[in-house]
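Teaching soon. Invent one.


***
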Amino acid sequence: MKNLNRIGLNIDKSKMLADKLNELLANYSIFYQNTRGFHWNIKGDKFFELHLKFEELYNDLQLKIDEVAERILTLGYSPEHAYSSYTKSSKISESKKVSDGLVAVEHILDGFQVILLLQREILDIASDANDEGTNALMSDYIQLQEKQVWMYSSFLKK
């Protein structure tokens, strides 16, 4: 029992999960801010359509950021909250002054690829740790995001 945390998970495996979830939190935070920027700066003939889609996406990302941070806390660790730390550990780069809708959608698809790969990695670690809470969260995210990738790819006719 000494090697278990308060929710009955192995402490070492929980620490590994919390570290990976903090990495996910960093990527989500940069992805969120990029999407806000796309929403604010989009121009062109697809403005109305993309403006709404980007708002829908960043609202969803905001909820996921909170859920990931709360999962880290549930595991017994602290979520990182310094934006400077996010920029250092995120594999998603900050997008600057993107106003072309097609370019913005490409950036979104690149962001989803990073997020999905990381979530699958977390899913493997969570399964090994018998962490159904993290497992369920990642499974739900992956299912929704795969559909979003399909939709954004269809927009680009890919």
